[in-house]
From TrEMBL:
<dbReference type="InterPro" id="IPR012337">
    <property type="entry name" value="RNaseH-like_sf"/>
</dbReference>
<dbReference type="InterPro" id="IPR001584">
    <property type="entry name" value="Integrase_cat-core"/>
</dbReference>
<dbReference type="GO" id="GO:0015074">
    <property type="term" value="P:DNA integration"/>
</dbReference>
<dbReference type="GO" id="GO:0003676">
    <property type="term" value="F:nucleic acid binding"/>
</dbReference>
<feature type="domain" description="Integrase catalytic">
    <location>
        <begin position="110"/>
        <end position="266"/>
    </location>
</feature>
<dbReference type="InterPro" id="IPR036397">
    <property type="entry name" value="RNaseH_sf"/>
</dbReference>
<protein>
    <recommendedName>
        <fullName>Integrase catalytic domain-containing protein</fullName>
    </recommendedName>
</protein>
Amino acid sequence: ADKRKIKRKKKKIYDQDVLVALKEIWKISDYICSKRLAPFLSEIIPVLEKWGEIKLDAKVREKLFKISAATIDRLLSDTRKRYRIKGRSTTRPRTLLKKSIPIRTFADWDEKVPGFFEVDLVSHDGGATKGDFNQSLNFTDISTGWEEMVAVKNKAQVWVFAGIKNIKERLPFSMLGLDSDNGAEFINAHLIRYCEEHKITFTRSRPYRKNDSCFVEQKNWSVIRRAVGYGRYDTDKELSILNELYGYLRLYVNFFQPVRKLIKKE
């Protein structure tokens, strides 16, 4: 009699129970990428279990402790598609005092100590740029990934400058360098003089080259947009709410989220 090979269906290692638990932990971890989530699972799962946030079967827990980033990507692929949104940028190039400020590109960053920041503004115009609206001033430290943000009334130099001083005063380390885009809210004599007085290296990125500010650009979305979305905020009350939120958000991001640093650009 002919003996035909019977193909047996391979049993899934990471079954539905694992997927359900993984989704819940991923949401609790603020939807972080798989390469950050995979090594974080063994640390966060015991904490979540201790405080009753999740209850895991022993086998599910063991599988989650061993799961790879690639497998997480595969399991969460369909779920992630439902969360994707596209952003808008309102940054326009400026020319004021550009020649007095050196250009810094992505390849120039090689800072080994904390204190060198990329800085950017995130607009809260709700899709209509007419009139004044609140802005979020976003700081990202190149060495550590430390994140600071403060909401300002609009992008006028006076508010942006006040926001920069506010952030400088609450940093856990000294501000040594500042790199901005070419907007007039940054490229002005007032800020240049302030940086000179406080021995802060001030540089600027090239116009239309987002990769020059890739560290802060990434945090614009992963931290600020994900927290407050794309709505229009243009009142004093909304400004106050944003800053109250950021007071908690900066602590959450800096002390309760794992950091994955960009090491090369392809």
